[in-house]
Specification:
Oligomer: single chain
Number of strands: 6
CATH topology of the largest domain: Multidrug efflux transporter AcrB transmembrane fold
Radius of gyration: 33 Å
Order of helices and strands: HHEHEHEEHEHHEHHHHHH
Amino acid sequence: MSAATNLMGRLYRGESNVDFVGRQKLWYGLSITLLVLSLVGLFVRGLNFGVEFTGGSVFSFKSSTATIEQIRDAIHETGHEQVIVQQAGENGWRATTETMPEGEITRVQRHLAEEFDIAQNDVSIQVIGASWGGQVSQQAIIGLIVFMVAIIAYLSMAFEWRMALAAVVALIHDLIITAGVYAWSGFEVTPATLLGFLTILGYSLYDAVVVFDMIKEVTAKLVTTGKQTYTEAANGALNSTLIRSLNTTLVAILPVASILFIGTTLLGAGTLKDLSLALFVGMLVGTYSSLCVATPLLVTLKEREPQYIALAKRVAQRNQALAKAEAGGRTGKGKDSGGEKATVGAGGPSSAQKQRKKR
C-alpha cells in the first residue's frame, strides 16, 4: 500500500513518468484479447434479453415464505417451462414467462395465489409485447448514431480528425467489451441497460477529451522547438492528467459499486442492477481505453505524418550529439587528470634540485 501511495504521490508531483504510449503493443494485445472474448460471448452465448424485448407475461407478488425454486416449480406445474424468477425488494417476487393467452394468465395467477396462500388479486399481472422493446432498441440505435456523428464533427473541429477517430474507436471498444460482460455474466438486458450504455459513452469520452486537450497544448510548438518527439510529448501530457482521470473514476465508481454490489444483493433492486452493471463496467473500461487505447492510437496516427517523422529524426540526431559530447567530456577529463599527474611526476625532481641549490 505504501509503495502504491508513494507512486501516486510522485505521479501527482510530476516526479515519475509512466510510459503508457511506449507500451502500446501491450495495450493493443490486451484490448484485442478482450474484444475477441467479448465477441465470442456475444455470438456463442448471446445476450439475455428481458421480457421488454422478447415479450411475455410478468407475475408480481409478495410472500415472506416463497423461494425461487418454489415459484419456479409452481409455474412449471401449470405447464409452462420458460420462467425467470427474480426477487424484487423485501419479500417481493417477479416471475416472467413466455406470452400466454388470457385464460392461461388467469390460471397461473390463481395457482400462484393458492400455492403461497395469498389473495388472487394480490398477484399483479403485466403483459408486455415484444414490439415495445423493439421500439426502444430502434430509438437507442438512432441516438447512438446521432451521438457518434456529433462527436466526430465536434472533435474534428475542436481538435482534428485523428483525435476524433481515436476517440470513436475507444468508444466502440468500450461498448463491445461491456456488452461482452453482459453476455458472459448472463445479466438481463433491459431498457435500463440501454440507458447505461448511452451514459458510459459520455463518461468514456470525457477522459479522452481531457487528455487530447492537454496533448494539443503541449504539442502546439513541438515542430519548431524540436526538443521532444510527438510520442514523448503525448506521453508527458497523458501523465499530467493521469491523477485527475483516476480520481474522477474513483469518485464516480464508488456509488455505482455500492448500487451494484450492495443494493442488488441486500435490496434486490433489479432495475438498478441492470443499470449499475453497465455503468460499473463502462467506467472501468472507459478509463482504461482513454489512457491505453485512444492516446496510443492517436500517437500511432500522428507519428506517420511527414513533419513528425522529420521531427523524430532531428530529436534522435540531437540526442546522439549530446551523448557523444557527454562521452567526449568524460574522456577529456580523464586525459586532463592523467596529464596533471604526469607533469607533477616529471616536475618533482626539478623542484627538489632547486631546494637543494637554495640550501
